[in-house]
Amino acid sequence: MHAKKLSPLLAVVMGLALAVTLFPVFWIVMTAVKPPIDWNASPAIWIPSDPTHINFMTLFDPDAIRAYGVGGVSQSATKAVWGSVRASIIATALSVGIGLFSAIGITRYGNGSKLAPLIILSGRMFPPAAIAVPFVIIFSNVGLIDSYAGLIAIYTAATLPFSTWMLKSFVEDLPREVEEAAMIDGRSRLMAHLTVTIPLIRGGIFATTLFIFILNWSEFMFSLVLSYTNISTIPVQLARYVTATAGTLYGVQAALAVLAMVPLMLMGYLIQSHLARGMTFGAIKQ
Amino acid sequence: MAENTMQATASGRPPGGLSRGAVVRLLTLPGTLVSLVVLVTPLLVALYMSFTDWSPTRSSFFDASFVGFDNYSELTIYDTRFLYAVLRTLCIAAVCLGLEFVIGLGLAVLFLREFRGKSLLFSAFLSPMMILPVVVGYTFWMLFQSNGPINQIVELCFGPGSSPEWFRSAPLAVLAVVITEVWHWTPLFFLILLSGLNAVPENPVRAAVILGASPRQVFWRVVMPMLKPVIVVAFVIRTMEIIKLFDEVYMLTRGGPGSATETISLYIYKLAFNDFQLAYGAAAAFLVLLGCLLLIHLLLSPVRDQLLKGGR
């Protein structure tokens, strides 16, 4: 491959676009390492002369920042981080597991496959604000409000359309003949799916798992309305910091934002070649 | 057709296994059950609720009295805040989609050629869409502060004192929301359009070139028509997401100043969880759902057949 340089004009266009794309990322990372005196300096400081990790310490030890003569943060982020980790992992496992079964069922036995895509798609259409209202009522009545079980149930259901749809496109790509061969060899129908279909699409399952994890990890509104004192997630914690401190704790908030952002960016890069397919419900074949 | 192949080769019941029907049930039951219990039930509760006057501050849920279509008529005739939220969301959607499509297409076309560092740049350009909406909202809230970097650049370009207070003026606050959305989601258009462009078969393009078509004609007459389903899907996905727009605006402006940046989702959220008008909020949500279904139906209709074939 003989890759050439871009013409100067295109290089400038590309460079500008790149700067605009990366600047907010640069800003949040820089803010996360600013010492308190630089947080809200006027004019704003682009690159701190004295970078520090105190903001990250403060997240888990609310008083760490007192050494700088700044009031402590009211709440440690430990619970929120574990809450996010726990709810996202369990819900992702459930969503992908159930979605995998549904995907095989729909693709191989085709019940309702004519309409299923649109029904699945419509699961994504409903504004979360609307569905959050009945959830609060139902969950208060069955004791699931402010509990991880309730949160996980919603996460699972909300991402199920995506996991089913994305996995379905991977199952479709797999020729039926490989399963049939296994059945002729004497394996039962179910065992053929478990021992042949699933291992053969493991790349797709991996991509789907990361994709669903990204969705769960980013989810905000449901955790906002369902969490009171028992449970918390990173997005809710971030919003609470902003509310409680009227934005005076820039550095600490930015540190939490970076902590929330890094795993997703890593996962995103790992599955970037599958993203278009996942998000367009398989309309693009690669 | 394909089912028959499977049945013929596997001759009904493979040895020692469950029957075909049992396997199908086992595979599809969990998904159906979750969807029914966790999605359909709340929707039915919300639908029922939207015809009552229930609010948690007034009575138990089971004592709510039936008010027929009162909530709906109130919303569509008298509630200007709701109507403005709908219009505002649609305007934001139109502007954002237009900008995201044009910028995304431009970038995608640039990426059709080979150049040094392409794969690294590709990853870099995708970065924004891999960041949580809440973090994006918070980051742009910092960037748009009156002493923030965006205003520093504005002052650099237009002289001291020219920088605005983004969150104190209604049009500027809406502009801030639009800029944030465009930054966050242009990469999605870029990704989808680039994947689509790469999937365009080469033969028709070659044929057109041989027949003497100019590059411009090839692009608009040959490539774009083949790209149509992909473009429609990208628009549908983004439209749905903008109608649900909440996280970024919540972090950026909380709907302010006043209700200048209230989107539909933010308005419904405030109705339900700040003002505790849950029944009224549910009615608003159902109106939005009906609107969404209609919109999606219209947007998808030209490419529905291609999509239902599973994209094959």
From TrEMBL, chain A:
It is found in: Cell membrane. It is a multi-pass membrane protein. InterPro entries: BP-dep_ABC_trans_perm, MetI-like, MetI-like_sf. Residues 81-271 form the ABC transmembrane type-1 domain. One of its GO terms (biological process) is transmembrane transport. The chain crosses the membrane at residues 9-30, 87-106, 118-142, 148-171, 192-215, 250-271. Belongs to the binding-protein-dependent transport system permease family. This is Putative binding-protein-dependent transporter inner membrane component. It comes from Megalodesulfovibrio gigas (strain ATCC 19364 / DSM 1382 / NCIMB 9332 / VKM B-1759).
